Amino acid sequence: MGFLNILFCEFIYEIFLKFVGFKINVVSLHKQNTTNMIKALLFIRVSTVQQDYTRQKTDLMPVAINDGYKQSEIGIIAHKESATKNDIYNRASISELKKYISENKIETVYVHEISRLAIRSDVMYEVKSILEKNKICLYVHTPYPIRTYENGESNLMANVIIEFLTQVAIA
């Protein structure tokens, strides 16, 4: 990316910050430096332009920090998009998740509730496969905290509960 393109992207990003009110780690603006890799992701999604991300971010950020991540190690994927109308190939948030995973050593993905990640079972299956393949813990905040990995081991009960919650979200 040329110098002027980077300056333009930074300018647009600064405007975005004024309207949204919080920072997002943007992987595509600058190459990540290996000493400051993103290790955790807040996956935040709302369905309409009228909704905002504040509640999800304010609930999830303290959990990630309490889990031992520095703020500089936490990336945020925040999108306003439909989870029912788009398949896995047409969701910008899922594409961004894949990019973060390929460019960083992600350990945990935090979502406020399972429907923020996926409502369609085909999308959830694909996302869970990606997370499992990379041994990434999925943390679901509500209805109560659930982690797919505990102490480095797969949590079978959490995976069953997530499957159930996905089916409830579909209904």
Please name the defining characteristics of this protein.
single chain; 171 residues; alpha/beta; two-stranded antiparallel ribbon; 19% strand; globular; disordered N terminus
Structural class based on helices, strands and sheet pairing: alpha/beta
% residues in beta strands: 15-25%
Could you state the order of secondary-structure elements as H and E? Answer: HEHEHEHHEEEEH
Shape: globular
Rounded to the nearest angstrom, the radius of gyration is 16 Å
Number of strands: 7
Q: How many angstroms separate the termini?
A: 44 Å
Number of helices: 6
Q: Can you tell me the residue ranges where pLDDT is under 50 for at least 5 consecutive residues?
A: 1-9, 20-35
In round numbers, the mean pLDDT is 79
Could you estimate the helical fraction of the residues in percent? 40-55%
Your description of this structure?
With 171 residues, the protein is α/β, with parallel strands linked by helices. It contains 6 helices and 7 strands. It has a 5-stranded mixed β-sheet, with helices on both faces. Strand 6 and strand 7 (153-154) form a beta hairpin. The termini are far apart. Residues 1-9 and 20-35 have low confidence and may be disordered.
